[in-house]
Automatic annotation (TrEMBL), chain B:
The keyword Transport does not apply. This is Gluconate 2-dehydrogenase subunit 3 family protein. NCBIfam families: TAT_signal_seq. It comes from Planococcus liqunii. The lineage of its organism: Bacteria, Bacillati, Bacillota, Bacilli, Bacillales. It comes from the Bacteria.
Length: 570, 250
């Protein structure tokens, strides 16, 4: 039996950054908003005993229960897709705040180049810089158009930073708070990269350098540099997160309600509009329909795509014909980097998730690619996020991975090893996409999302080039031994790499190659909005959250306009 | 891999049982060794005085939750000790209580793969597709330890737990190099799991039963659960800080 609930103005599927931002903005306008969150309520008071590497970082306390739902994966269409039975390459989350609870807080704006990548690449290097199977495209919006929304998100989150990077887009305002502390470890990187002629700057951080009250009146505390950010929640309320900012802002209006343990399995569609969503209470397994004037998909990018697929909204991408847009342009991230082994001991266990310095000299099109066989690049950073002992066992080359020699070397080098890491852009490829799995299902009987993905020649070339650059910085930092990352071959879903997955519900100005317009409004259903990193037409050289936050504010504006005027927003 | 240790064979370590082990590793584990040696899980609390307030074992009592016989547990103990041996820096896996940590983990959600997708159908996949077996971790461990014992008999006509260090290493290396036939899982996968679990037990907060006396953290210079480093992080010098467990914060 399905219970149909009272209709609301807006329902969001998932309550993380995007769901929270949509809720806050719409509720402030007087709209009645319901957030359906499949996980549990959680907040700062739940993180009093969070300094527990084993529970949170190794056993994934805050992450999705894969026994209920996972994704399936294969490297190419010839393989049989098999379920990701254990969490590995990326960490799917659930619960109030979503990934915004357990992120590191590294907050970026994608480069102006990113939003017009196809146009700019063709202008500078001609139409054939990349082979045709790379489906790069402009995003249907420019950096300048998005700038006010970037600014808005950064003020909401209180981002700490300094505007000294010569390579990023023009900012309309300073950062909300001062940059984080420039620790001795960061200074090593700063000196070395300056010596090499690069332009280091403090990484923009959502771990706040000082206490801050945002424009909505939400308070964020000052970071204590305890070294437990990524995979953890913050016990100080000092890492900007949805549950301490936009969620309370939405609640304070009196127009917002969150339903927990509510797992949405279908977006209901009638004609050219959606009518609401169907969900299971994950505790009682009761089924409900939540009717709404506007439906907003604000869950993780994979789940957003899956819900559209199972609801048969939009045309599934087919790599054979190149037709269809849903599931198209899935991209990941390429992680070049280098480790350095030093003589001196350093305070590597202290830190914060976004405590770092970066150079952008080899990101985007900030350097000439005329003689290179790839486009784009990576930000190269040193981060002092707090090295914890289970996950941090660095040993120099040719050291065994266990036994007496390993023990000695890993203990010796634990406080003596630093990394320069790159977040490398990932270009979409015709053969990399998402679809529904034909065999495996979740516990609600809904097919799993199926991922077909492999690294490409562009990725391998980018990785090799940027790894050399990272190693160069590490050399200049004075490491006695420098070890560059091994060349990448096939994508492997087992070792953790990054949770910066993108694409599948791409934004754009042309319905033939995008799922939503530049207000994140679905081309095939005007009262359906889909927002998140799934909107990225390719993946850039930074963490995604800053850009996702900007898109969410853009989307909220679209929903508010739509609710007044109706129709297509573009 | 590391060659046979000169100063301390595994067999000697095992045979010394409670007293010598206790002298080496502190009070917490003595009860455990005695309990397991008697083949019962009901050691009286009196056998293991809680000499360390910060010890992970409540009241100093330790027993087995997953393994049912001492022989298997001793294989586990010796194998983890080879992976993370006692040396001049401090205790190895046994001294840190790692075998008990693993035993407890195998009895719970970790051993039962309860947060993982275990629905069929099951197919062997590419390595890049990850774990595809219907075996749960605790079944994998039990099988792996049994095969280690079989290998010890086949190669050296002795129990694994009685082998010299170098002989154990030979068998562990064969697992690592994927030369051992296992059912439902590759020996390399099992070896990696064993290695990870050993490091987890050495460095997890002592509330989980390993990292006895926080000796894992002390060796590594990791201070465990500290509220803040805001006043120390600007310091050029490496900060030696007495570690603290979450179990001490109540």
């Amino acid at each position: 039996m399905v219970t149909t609930l009272d209709k609301v103005d807006v329902v969001t599927v998932g309550v993380g950054w995007t769901g929270g931002i949509i809720a806050a903005e719409c509720a402030k306008e007087g709209m009645k908003v319901v957030g359906l969150e499949r996980g549990r309520e959680r907040g700062t008071s739940d993180f009093a005993i969070v300094h527990d590497e084993y529970r949170y970082a190794i056993r994934y306390e805050l992450m999705q229960d894969l026994s209920r739902e996972t994704v399936s994966f294969r490297n190419n269409r010839k393989q049989r897709a098999l379920p990701m039975r254990q969490m590995g390459s990326f960490l799917l989350g659930e619960g109030l705040g979503g990934s915004g609870t357990h992120w590191n807080g590294q907050n970026w704006r994608f480069l102006p180049y990113d939003f017009e990548i196809k146009t700019m690449t063709e202008q500078k290097y001609g139409a054939n810089k990349l082979p045709a199977e790379y489906t790069i495209q402009d995003w249907g919006i420019t950096y300048d158009e998005l700038e006010p929304y970037f600014d808005r998100f950064e003020k909401t989150a209180g981002i700490s930073g300094e505007d000294t990077n010569p390579f990023w887009g023009k900012r309309s305002a300073e950062y909300a708070t001062q940059p984080m502390k420039k620790t001795p470890i960061l200074q090593k990187f700063e000196t070395a990269s300056k010596n090499l002629g690069y332009s280091p700057f403090m990484m923009p951080s959502a771990n706040l350098s000082e206490a801050y009250e945002n424009p909505d009146g939400a308070k964020i505390n000052a970071c204590q540099y305890c070294g437990f950010c990524e995979r953890f929640g913050c016990e100080y309320g000092a890492k900007s997160s949805p549950e301490i900012t936009v969620v309370p802002t939405a609640k304070n209006t009196g127009n917002y309600e969150i339903k927990f343990n509510a797992n949405v399995v279908e977006v209901m569609k009638q004609g050219d509009k959606v009518t609401g969503v169907r969900y299971f209470d994950t505790v009682s397994f009761e089924e409900f329909i939540q009717p709404a004037e506007v439906v907003v998909l604000t869950s993780y990018m994979m789940n957003n795509a899956k819900l559209l697929m199972v609801s048969k909204i939009g045309e599934q991408y087919d790599p054979e014909t190149g037709r269809g847009t849903l599931g198209r342009n899935y991209a990941y991230q390429i992680l070049p980097g280098a480790s350095g082994f030093f003589d001196e001991k350093m305070n590597v266990f202290m830190g914060a998730g976004a405590l770092g310095m970066t150079v952008d000299d080899f990101n985007g099109d900030n350097f000439d690619h005329a003689d290179l066989d790839f486009i784009h690049g990576a930000s190269l950073s040193i981060t002092q996020t707090g090295n914890r002992p289970i996950q941090t066992n660095p040993v120099p080359p040719d050291t065994p991975s266990w036994g007496a020699e390993f023990k000695k070397a890993s203990i010796e080098n634990y406080p003596r090893t630093l990394n320069v890491g790159g977040q490398g852009a990932s270009m979409p490829h015709r053969e990399n996409y998402m679809a529904l799995d034909g065999t495996y299902k979740d516990i609600y009987g809904v097919p799993l999302l199926q991922l077909t993905y492999n690294f490409t020649d562009q990725d391998r070339a980018l990785h090799a080039y940027l790894t050399e650059k990272a190693a160069g910085i590490m050399q200049e930092m004075g490491a006695k031994t420098v070890v560059g990352g091994s060349p990448i071959s096939d994508y492997d879903i087992v070792p953790y790499q990054t949770t910066h997955n993108t694409g599948g519900t791409v934004m754009g100005s042309d319905p033939a190659i995008s799922v939503v317009n530049n207000y994140l409004q679905h081309w095939d259903a005007e009262n359906l909005f889909v927002v998140g990193a799934g909107n990225f037409a390719h993946n850039g050289g930074y963490n995604p959250t800053g850009t996702v936050g900007a898109l969410a504010y853009r989307c909220a504006e679209g929903i508010i306009n739509y609710s007044k005027n109706g129709g297509s927003l573009v | 891999m590391s060659k046979k240790e000169k100063n301390f064979s595994r067999r000697d370590f095992l045979k010394t049982s409670g007293v010598a082990a206790g002298a080496l590793v502190g009070g917490g584990i003595i009860g455990g060794l005695i309990a397991s040696n008697t083949g019962t899980e009901t050691a009286s609390p009196g056998t293991a005085p809680a000499t360390h307030g910060e010890s992970g074992s409540a009241g100093g009592v330790r027993g087995l939750m997953f393994f049912k016989n001492d022989a298997e547990f001793q294989i586990l103990s010796q194998a983890t000790e080879r992976i993370f041996p006692e040396d001049d820096l401090g205790p190895g896996a046994i001294g840190l209580g790692v075998p008990y940590f693993i035993d407890q983990q195998l009895a719970g959600a970790y051993g039962e793969n309860s947060k993982e997708y275990m629905q069929g159908p099951f197919f062997e996949g590419e390595t890049t597709q990850g774990y595809q077996s219907r075996l749960k971790r605790n079944e994998m461990f039990r099988q792996g330890l049994q095969i280690m014992q079989q290998e010890a008999q086949k190669r050296f006509k002795a129990n694994f737990a009685d082998l010299e260090g170098g002989q154990m290493d030979e068998i562990l290396t064969a697992f690592q190099e994927d030369q051992i036939q296992m059912q439902g899982v590759s020996s390399l996968f099992f070896f990696r799991l064993l290695r990870s679990a050993t490091l987890e037990g050495a460095y997890a907060d002592p509330i989980y039963g390993g990292n006895q006396n926080m000796d894992g953290w002390k060796m590594k210079g990791f201070p465990g659960h500290q509220a803040a480093y805001i006043s120390q992080i600007d310091n050029e010098e490496f900060q030696e800080i007495d570690p603290k467990s979450l179990g001490q914060s109540h």
